[in-house]
Amino acid sequence: MRWVTFLLSIAMVIIGVAMLVRALSGGGGPLALGVVLGVLFIAAGAGRLWLQRGGS
């Protein structure tokens, strides 16, 4: 089951990066919806990976 969590976390990071790139290439500013959601997706995916690894 851990590998499913790992894959979903990686997918969240990739989706976040794609949203960020798409928003910035489309002329979005730092508070554009795509930028904010992209950063949140990256943070959520990275946080899940960090917690799965053992946390602090």
Give the oligomeric state: single chain
Number of domains: 1
Average pLDDT confidence is: 94
Strand content: under 5%
The residue ranges in which pLDDT falls below 50 over 5 or more consecutive positions are none
| Share of helical residues | over 70%
Tell the overall outline: elongated
* Secondary structure tally, helices: 2
Radius of gyration of CA atoms, rounded to a whole number: 13 Å
Structural class: mainly alpha
Query: How many runs of DSSP E, i.e. beta strands?
Result: 0
Cα-to-Cα separation, first versus last residue: 22 Å
The ordered string of helix (H) and strand (E) elements is HH
Largest sheet: none
Descriptive report:
Keywords: Membrane, Transmembrane, Transmembrane helix. By secondary structure, this protein is mainly α. It has one domain. Helices cover 80% and strands 0% of the residues. It contains 2 helices and no strands. Helix 1 runs antiparallel to helix 2. The longest helix is centred in the N-terminal third of the chain and has 24 residues. The chain is elongated, with a radius of gyration of 13 Å. The chain starts with a helix and ends with a helix. 14% of the residues are buried. The model has no long low-confidence stretch (mean pLDDT 94).
Q: Summary?
A:
By secondary structure, the chain is mainly α.
